[in-house]
Amino acid sequence: MNRTTVSLIAGTAALAAVTGFATLSSPEAAGTARTATELPVERTSLLCPSPSTSDIAETSYTSFTPVTKDAGSGGKAELQAAAAESDGKSTGKSTGKGKGKGKKAGKPVLEPQEPGKPATGDTSGGDAPALVGTAEGKFAPGWTVQETTEVAAGSGRGLQGVNCSAPDTEFWFPGASTAADRTDYVHLTNPDDSAAVVDIELYGKDGALDSTLGEGITVAPHSSDPILLSTLTEEKQENLTVHVNVRSGRVGAAVQALDDKLGGDWLAASTDPSGSLVLPGIPKDATAVRLVAFAPGGSDADLKVQLASPSGLITPAGNETLHVKAGMTASADLGDVTRGEAGSLVLTPTDTSVPVVAALRVVRGKGADQETAFIPATRPVGTRATAADNSAKGTTLSLTAPTRGATVKVTASAGSDGGEAVSKTFTLKAGTTQNVEAPTPTGLKGTYALTVEHVSGGPVYGARTLAATEDGVPGFTIQALPDDRGMVAVPDADEDLSVLQK
Fold it and tell me: Which of 26, 184, 365, 415 sits CB 3.0–4.6 Å from 446 for a disulfide?
């Protein structure tokens, strides 16, 4: 075998094990059957945004790595404050406090435990920095960190939660706002040793909003900037799509949406633009649901809107379809669309498939006792997905099989302070959503993680809702369950690759 070919295969396998992604192709090899081996990733990173500016905020972090076959026995994981020797003048466009700038990394906020056991940590007050996490070896495959904040009063009061996410170069956030009652920030966190340069574009109901202040934002190394959306444009719009595009480097990004009357939560990025989307886990007692969608290409999109209910797919009366003009943000108020039952929204093209991004704003409660959360379109569970920071009460696991029936295995991990793992298997009918009776650890003490594994059948989408009512306000937050990308397929070393030498 040609030495160059051998080196290419070895390099591809190493890259896949570290990053979770690898491809190997050749024009001459088109149509040739290939075999591959699933290997655990060997290194991963996660970024957690600065949780709150409120002095009365209480934030907890939960770290969990599921047990992964063939992951090895060594490795480590750490989650520390972002730190930079910066003078805070790198952008001139951030209206936040530059969380992480000028702060030296000190004691980690938590010490991750062995795979299979959650670890917890907490902070209080409004000066908590953004966090940068890395995991290697057995700690890397499927590593999940949840950030959960309770804010007792003020704008955004209620429960705010977000999954710490991997750095990337592009993000879409339909569902943001510059309305008078909203204070929305885009949090940008740079984990690397060199500065990142970022453009933030805003799209409303009539197209792109005029803004030069969102161009060329520099995020210093090992730092985080919360960018207030209302400083990027003078226009007040109820429904916006935010596009974060990284010119150089990479960042973590999330939108913190704070409402003066309706509480607030984190808006995570929508999955990559696609012709069909699933937005799982609408609470059965939702009092108001708003769909926000955006078509980033040059063509309009016409979407069929359906609700996957416990009994099958149904079409919301008066909202059968949604027309999304190219480059413009469209919205539809669906009201109490779930009507007391579990539900997930399924968007499919009515004719020609056009890539779109989408998210839901969900409201629970009535009058002065209302709270808000967001559900972005998400990837399927895939091989495995995990939600950390669950409690014996207040956790709801929602699963949907939009196209074909499927079977999944759900495992409740050991508790952070004690307890033994328990697993249950669930079968989902095609086109349905179920709020399943997820297991809890035997002898639970502390918090635990829920891991969903696809067993058979069609694709499954999932979301976990955390609820904590305080003083009559139904605080809640929703996190989607996309595939954890803890495993990656790499070519077998002994396959016949002689075709690559032609």
Answer: 415
